[in-house]
Design goal:
- The structure is a single chain.
- The chain is an alpha/beta fold and 286 residues long.
- The protein folds into two domains: 134 residues, Rossmann fold, CATH 3.40.50.620; 152 residues, Rossmann fold.
- Helices cover 42% and strands 21% of the residues.
- The chain is built from ten helices and ten strands.
- It has a ten-stranded mixed beta sheet, sandwiched between helices.
- Helix 4 runs parallel beside helix 5.
- The longest helix is centred in the N-terminal third of the chain and has 22 residues.
- The relative contact order is 0.15.
- About 4% of the residues have low confidence.
Length: 286
Amino acid sequence: MAMTFKKILFPTDFSANADRALEHAVHLADPADAELIVQHVVSDYFERHSHWATLFDIHELQKRMDGYVVSRVLPAFAKNPAVRVRQVISKGKPAEEISALAEKELVDVVVMGSAKGVVTNDVIRRTLRPVFATSMKGGSHPLEVKRILVATDFSEHSKKVVRYAFDLKKAFNATLYLLYVVETPRALEFGVRQGAFFQTIEKMRKWANDQLVNLTPDEYVNDATVIRIVDEGGASDRIADVAGELGADLTIVGTHGYEGLRRHFLGGTTDDLLTKIDSPLLAVKL
């Protein structure tokens, strides 16, 4: 069984990176009742070069969009003919237009390529909708989600992300790894290596593990497919490293407010995760 969504926004720039995101969108869409909104954003080129903004140019752009849908999107959904496909061409800055359409349509998820993380990071900060970003490094096949990693900072709002992760675990019948990173300053890390702070770190690890147990729903407390991990170091580095070590097929993180992960989530940044992590990243607004 797989997690499915009824309304998906798929922004595309017609690149191979976008095609990789399309593969995930196919898998995430409810085969019986889903709508895929294919969006292409045109920059402000026409505004700066008004003599190019002719009906011919608009017609050519629409032809390209039509051709992409016919040649790439519809064949990708050949086994799910009930999925409805709608096209939207927007003019403006990509992140702003993608976020605006996501909010207007109240989509269940935005599925997009990571590129260098810049546009994706901006979308994550702006929208209230979950954002599924593919990895720059490729990652696992979209049909094989067996290991899910969710990182938490134990904030009250982060419980929403953990609940979301357990819903995905159930839907995918996957093993779920709960991760908390103890962020230790370099000086403290040095002290730990020297043994001076050994007892302190051990107490912190025990406290963190207890918190992870408390976050686990009762029916999963003794479930062997729910694994709790406490790690130390820089949050974004350790999240990426643990995801790689586990061979995670999906990594879930939470975002706080407009600034997204940049300032608030575990000291890491969306940019770091998108460029370092091998698995797709699902960002959920808290």
